[in-house]
Amino acid sequence: MSTFVEKARSQFPSLASGYIFADNAGGSQCAKIVVDRISDYLLNTNVQLGADYSVSVESTQRVASASVSAAKLFNAASPDEVAFASSSTQAAENLARALENDIQEGDELIVTGEHEANAGGWKKLAVRRGATVKFWHARQSESAPNNPYSVCLSVDDLIPLITSKTRIVAFTACSNILGSIVPVKDVIKAARTKASEVGIRKIEFSVDCVAYAPHRQIDVQGWDVDYCFFSFYKVYGPHVSGVYARAASLKSSLTALTHHFLDVDSISYKIQPGGPGYETTYGTTGVLDYLLSLTPSNDLAASFKAIAEHEQTLLGPLLAFLRSQEPRGVRIVGDEQAGLSRVPTVSFVVTGERALRSQDVVKTFDQKGGIGIRYGHFYAYSLVDNLTPKLDIVDAVVRISLVHYNTVEEVEKIIAILKEVLG
Ligand SMILES: Cc1ncc(COP(=O)(O)O)c(C=O)c1O
């Protein structure tokens, strides 16, 4: 085991049991530093924020420090552009609600078939405001023309959808099923160019970084994004989500969700209708510190580089094994090749004469014990529903999702069980 992985693993007490956590896209393990901060908050500073007595001053500072650290994770220009929600689904719904007054009848909202969190709220908003929803669907990957389940989002399909009426484009930075990374910066640049050609009143982009944030560094400024969110419980932290709204959008697009007598110009009140869970919000500060601790330079970019490099050593053998099972009927759902445009979230189905249900593949893993993987559509319902040949929407795909604290030895064990399952 490399020193990088050893160091990472040592910060997760749950990994000492040897259990193989391979459902990380569902939820990662929580770093000890995060748990220590939550515990410290509850044991020592658990009072209401905003009062002048000393403990309240400290708890107020602690919760405020979470915006500072989340701003670094987003690469936001200011902590004033960051708020929190109980989940990313809630964060996206809050955004859609806050945007309601700035959506006009006939506006067009573009969504993807990826996780419903960044689609459902916009679809419901469209119904409320008489706007139209358009779908940016995944298409067959050029790199695997013979595998109908090797699909990806292509900017070439987005651009023709943009008209003078487009108001919102909502998409994922990384698919929680396909594992493929969308080139966010290029997509937004191309879409803004088209928008200025067709003369749009106002176009804004909402990017779901939930499946992206555990593997790569977010850059809302570099990407030129208006709204962005991710869930800390998938990034080695607690159940709380961070949400970014660009200062200009806060000012001109969003209407406050909170009480009329509060500071409606502050982001935390604009898109955060009530207080966040104080202890978990403070706990999120441990996520940044954990990530920074992974490399000697204490630099986020270096940490994510090391994470991405190690994750490729997990992804390569797993994909190679699944590709070798193509004659057995195994079809990778997503990009078949390893590479930096892909994270180690690997989905597949077993088709053909000796087809296996996804739930039966997972059952064998459950019976063996000591390892957690999962099957289903993982709320990327429309993506799975649109695959052809059609899959049973409930049985859907088997997903093995790894992160940087997984080891090559664990991948070897997973492959050994897969060999048994496939016979
Ligand atoms: C890509 C993606 N977006 C959004 C979500 C929803 O996140 P939350 O559970 O915090 O609502 C998930 C959860 O799995 C996800 O994978």
UniProtKB/TrEMBL annotation:
It comes from the Eukaryota. Residues 20-413 form the Aminotransferase class V domain. This is Aminotransferase class V domain-containing protein. It comes from Hericium alpestre.
